[in-house]
Specification:
- The chain has helices at about 10-20, 30-40, 60-70, 85-95, 105-160, 210-235, 240-255, 330-335, 340-350, 365, and strands at about 1-5, 25-30, 45-50, 75-80, 100, 165-170, 170-180, 185-195, 200-205, 260-270, 275-280, 290, 295, 315-320, 325-330, 380-385.
- Helix 5 runs parallel beside helix 6.
- It has about 400 residues and is of the alpha+beta class.
- It is rod-shaped.
- The protein is built from 10 helices and 16 strands.
């Protein structure tokens, strides 16, 4: 509570009143010092300012303080012997919030100060809320920056877990393309030599996007890598049995209770007998096999992994010609096609891959990926081509 009046008697009287009313008065007899105080204070305040004073009058204080601190809550009540409508308008136009004429009635002054205090208290709360919001925003910004760093680090780790691109294993060349809709992908793939007869590969799509889905891809890679190691160390043949491998992964994923499910296509290429042995757990669109100038879907179906406890999976075999190309695509490709009808989408995919010269580098142009700023879903492609071995 600020009192500004060059008459010390008036100041003393005002001080006695406001003390009685429960306020802590700050007294100034010199208007310029009062103005300097108002420029520096950090606390919202009610100020009773006399109109007629030497150096700076009340009108000048109002005008200057509103100019210098237009947004800071200072509730100014002008005290003056002037009366009349013109004086009232002049005081309010100068920046006063209220106006009371001398000699004033104590109860009227008490009410006007109380009204000013309610306004100031509300503005004080707003300032506190603004500060809290600003602090919360700063904390949120720091958290987002930390998350972004963590996510980028996670993306780097996920990339390192992907197999080497454009890799030839036995007689087959593997190449892949992966573009996540977010920093981290829920799609994943891998390919690897099991022995001199079999090459294994898988293609998975975890439900959802981002970090939680990416974590599942790492978990699945860990599971499958353990079975590769068991085959080499213990002659365990789980890795050579697609349906059994998927059944075990389904059981393990349900046991973890992570609230995620996934689709997976797991295949083995038998280099000696020219066969593809595979099991499909919900992967769609179906893999596309190109050979002898035609394309066809490997349209065997199966339940996704992580949904049903006792899901059963089957192994399928497909004789492979000497020259073939196998294309596996994530369902993110369906989301970016210019057509929405599923049958037409499938026909479009079959016709797109009627060209055995297509490489992984052609995929962005074939599907216009470079013109898309944000992908609605992860975009992943695996291409397997038969050919001479470089191993």
């Amino acid at each position: 509570m600020l009192i500004v009046d060059d008459e010390k008697t008036n100041c003393k009287l005002m001080e006695l009143y406001v003390l009685r009313w429960g306020y802590e008065p700050i007294i100034f007899w010199e208007s310029k010092k009062a103005y300097e105080y108002l420029l520096q204070t950090d606390e919202p305040i009610v100020a009773c300012v006399d109109w007629m004073m030497p150096e700076m009058d009340g009108i000048e204080i109002c005008e200057k303080i509103r100019k210098e601190r237009p947004d800071f809550p200072i509730y100014i009540i002008l005290l003056t012997a002037k009366s009349g409508k013109e004086s009232l308008i002049k005081g309010l136009d100068a920046g006063a919030d209220d106006y009371i004429t001398k000699p004033f009635d104590a109860e009227e002054l008490k009410s006007r100060i109380g009204a000013g205090k309610r306004v100031v208290d509300l503005e004080k709360k707003l300032i506190e809320w603004d500060r809290e919001l600003e602090n919360a925003n700063d904390a949120l910004k720091r958290s987002i920056e930390t998350i972004e760093k963590d996510v980028k680090a996670g993306r780097a780790i996920q990339n390192k877990l992907l197999p080497e691109n454009n890799q030839t294993i036995l007689n087959f060349k593997f190449s892949h393309y992966l573009e996540p809709s977010l920093y981290l992908s829920g799609d994943f793939l891998d390919y690897f030599k099991i022995n001199d007869q079999f090459v294994g590969f898988y293609f998975i799509d975890v439900s959802g996007h981002g970090a939680s889905s990416a974590f599942i891809t790492i978990l699945i890679k860990s599971y499958i890598s353990s079975f590769i190691s068991k085959n080499r160390r213990e002659n365990d043949n789980t890795i050579l049995d697609p349906k059994n491998l998927i059944r075990i992964i389904n059981k393990l994923l349900l046991k973890e209770k992570l609230g995620k499910h996934l689709t997976i296509f797991y295949g083995l290429i038998d280099n000696i007998n020219n066969k593809l042995i595979f099991s499909n757990a919900g992967q769609f669109p179906f893999p596309i096999l190109f050979s002898h100038g035609t394309t066809e879907f490997l349209n065997e179906k199966g339940f996704p992994v992580g949904l049903i406890k006792n899901s059963q999976y089957k192994n399928y075999e497909k004789d492979l010609p000497k020259d073939f190309t196998l294309f596996l695509l994530s369902d993110g490709f369906l989301d970016i096609l210019p057509i929405s009808d599923l049958k037409l989408q499938q026909e479009f995919l079959l016709s797109t891959f009627l060209d055995d010269s297509i490489t992984i580098d052609d995929i962005p142009e074939k599907f216009g990926l470079e013109s898309i700023k944000e992908f609605p879903d992860d975009i992943t492609c695996l291409i397997i081509k038969s050919g001479d071995s470089d191993d």
